[in-house]
Amino acid sequence: MVGSIPPPRFAGARAGSMRIGLEWMVLDRVTYDLHPAAPDIVFRLDRQHGAWAATPEIDATTLDVATSALDGYRAAAHTLEDMRCCVRRAARSVGAAVAGGGAHPVRTCGGQRAPGRFAGFGMHVQIGAPDADEAVRIGAWLNQRAPLFIALSASSPYWRGLDSGFCSARNNVAGTLQASGMMPSSLRSWQDIARHVARLARHGLATRVQDVDWDVRPDPEHGAVELCALDAPLHPAYAAALACYARELCIDIAASPGSWPCPRAADLYPWNRFNATRRGVLGDWIDPCTGKKLSIDHVVRNDLARLAARSDDPDFPTACVLIHELLHNGGQAHWLTAHVAAGTGPDDLARLASAMFDSPVASGWKVEQ
């Protein structure tokens, strides 16, 4: 017994296996406002059988979808495309549409079942770890690079119909939550995590690890390291690519047992996170090990080249092409703000996001005039 609660059991999973969770916004198919039809969509998806499942959130405007364990980009892309097709069909049958994006560009609260709640839409990636202590160590390394994923997934520049000044308004709001950001660097074992959560529990702040809003945290239920900080990408293909990038980083970290990040990582993380949230892929990132400031574009491209050279996933280069596309186009947030600069109203961005989701391929970077 640690404090008032026992250490949670860590399931353990095959190293390199991954699960992808996405929160998609449910929209009225005519107005493209948030629409509380997620339970109706889930009811129709219950008839589907595949390597994924859908559940409604407390807010009925949020559709939560998650895959089972996957290996590599081909399996991820195939599963998410099947999910996209089935969800699109089910949504249309109830007069709804579905879209990615971290937040609705105009509406900031959910539907009838959760009035006043901020409706944010995110992506989680769970990468299998063989044991709990290794999940903590891998998570500490992955946490350093979480700002890169915040930048690559950033897709919520508008807030209440206005340019928020951030590429990810969702992450800017989420950054105000209790215990958000970096997992404390003092936590270096599963027992450390259990004691930390027990201390929070004594104050009524948490009852389990999943209650703590770190950008990267151990996931005992799935035996994994969980990356939590991403906006929901505008197309599932980008979600598959980013998940595989995270998977390759975790595999790379696991190949250096016993190593831990530099102590200065905790000092630099708030700046790295804020910069990624604000500027997206056009931002900078300070390497905690060298103290050198580099462009996010440079860091990601170097990562992908290094990881592709050692990856055993023959389809990882395809994931790299999609991530390069995000970098080349200035990211999804830039695509949305460019539409507004060309004359599209913020209230029409949800329709554009839905059109991107409806496309069978991750395309549509042309800006409507």
User: How many structural domains does the protein architecture include?
Assistant: 1
Class derived from helix and strand content: alpha+beta
**Percent of residues in β-strands:** 5-15%
Rg over CA atoms, rounded to whole Å, is 19 Å
CATH architecture: 2-Layer Sandwich
Helix content: 40-55%
Q: Biggest β-sheet: count, sense, barrel?
A: 7 strands, antiparallel
Report the top-level CATH class: Alpha Beta
Mean pLDDT comes to: 90
Order of helices and strands: EHEEHEEHEEHHEEHHEEHHHH
What's the oligomerization state? single chain
Note the overall shape. globular
| First-last Cα distance | 63 Å
Overall number of strands: 11
Q: What is the CATH topology descriptor?
A: Creatine Kinase, Chain A, domain 2
By DSSP (H or I, 4+ residues per run), the number of helices equals 11
The poorly predicted ranges are 111-117
Concise summary:
The protein has helices at 38-45, 72-93, 132-153, 169-174, 190-202, 236-254, 265-279, 296-310, 316-328, 331-341, 349-358; strands spanning 18-28, 52-56, 62-67, 96-99, 122-128, 158-159, 162-163, 216-219, 224-231, 284-286, 293-295. It is an alpha+beta fold and 369 residues long.
